[in-house]
Amino acid sequence: MRLSAAHPSTSKKGQIPAIIWWTDFLIIALWAQELSGGLDFLSPGVLICLQTGQWWTALWMGALWVLVQEGGGNLVFGVSILFYSGMLVFFLLSKWLLEPENPLFIILFSLLLACWSWVVLSGAISFQELPARPYSPWSWIARQWAAYVFFWGTALLIYRRGGRNGRV
Fold it and tell me: Can you tell me where the transmembrane regions are (predicted)?
């Protein structure tokens, strides 16, 4: 018989409450995105939710991230929706090949996601008839890939140690 009114998952010692964890994640991701010149740091949060099976949290977080990115960007509406939809489809297809908890999955899926991001952004730029980028996409893809691998891996490690405290 449980005498405490607190939910068992919220009373674990050393755990960060979910609302604080995800608020901190958002602040750090937006800060990193600003300092990096526009690299995406929000997607790993949705991927952590997908990896841990928190589908509802991934849904509302994906919707929030879309609003943040669409509202703060200067591209046509729908680029973030296309990106996150593709990310979800690729995640569901990729998890049949590798276990999502596998570090190799994080590395390979990050590369796929960096390439997908470039395709979506390039399509939006050409659709909007903005001046084309004169340089090769590979340096941008490599930087985005490194950002995904580092931020996703670090955030997942921290989440497993102290942030796994229910759903928001």
Answer: 15-33, 45-68, 74-93, 105-128, 140-159
